[in-house]
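Continuing the series of single-chain predictions for the mutant panel. This is the parent chain; the variants come on the following pages.
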Amino acid sequence: MFIDEIKIYARAGHGGKGCVAFHREAFITKGGPSGGNGGRGGDVILEADHDLNNLINQFYTPRLIAKEGEGGKGKGMDGHAGNDLVVKVPCGTLVWKLPGTNPPVCKSEQDADEEDGPVAKLSPLQLATGRRHVIRHHGSERAMEIDLESEIETKEPSKDRHEGAELVADLTQHGQRFVLCKGGRGGLGNRNFATARHQTPRFAQPGEPGHEGDYLLELRILAEVGLVGYPNAGKSTLLAAISKARPKVAAYPFTTLTPQIGIVEYADWHRLTVCDVPGLIEGAHENVGLGHSFLRHIEHCKILVILLDMAGTDGRLPWDDYKQLLSELEHYDPALLDKPRYVVANKMDEPVAESNLKTFKRKIRKTALLPIAAAFDEGIEQFKQLIRDAVEEARQSETEKPEP
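Parent structure:
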């Protein structure tokens, strides 16, 4: 099962609460406060891994919840921090924050002993800086929050096809990490609130709640070459001819329902990755026929190969197919037309293909074509050399491009 889009719920661990305790040992009956601090909650971390090729793991575990921090203890002992939850995802994974995610809410204030009367307004954000402001109130003291700034970096909403969602991460490099949800900080023990005027505080801070939210993970396959074409144009047959991939091949449209990856190997051990995108139809840029699910997989490709059925076996004209494919790419993302693209005429073994090829060259000028017959391995070596040279040229252009 191929999963390239999945909705998940993630929640970081809550911080452990601070401890209210006092020092007791032989001959010391009334020691000072010794309550330890609570441990930090675990983070939810996404890590890109090139050994994965889809999001099947998140399909079976859509709830990602990290460990909570341990509460503080007496004798000044701090609680253990919660373990981080590291989730591996394929390279090319985009992380979208879905709308309606509520920010973490501060825990309610904790009532202190009636005898002493102090009340601590325990802000989790106060713990971020460790600062507090102590004021006098009828001979008692209480800690008030003074810092209400969130340390989470705010980003401008992304203007993309996910309405209302915000793009927060794009994991493309192996080993790249992103903290999806940050764990809450542990609460301070009562030893932190002792002052000269109030030497026996009987209150401590609760832990900060961990961040949580709903996210959408979207996979965009990383490949150097993207095969684009109408259904039944022979993309799967071509992929099987140039690599060891074995996609389903049949004589009807939409045989390929999910993107397929093939590794092209050369005699000098050079390798290229080729992505076979399921067939596009008219209106794909408006998500007709799941067009968005297919088109997004070619956004990271260095070059595009437009495969045409030059025989017109499904009653379509090759030159009309070519114009329609360019229109769909432009409407989906105009940047796709800036990528180097090459046109390949398939099914040249059919009798009508030769006449269609001549008509195509007459109607579509200044467009070089490579005629092949993938089912009979005709022109395969020329095609492999073409994409190799094109990818190397594209890489060279990227290195020479000046940085903005």
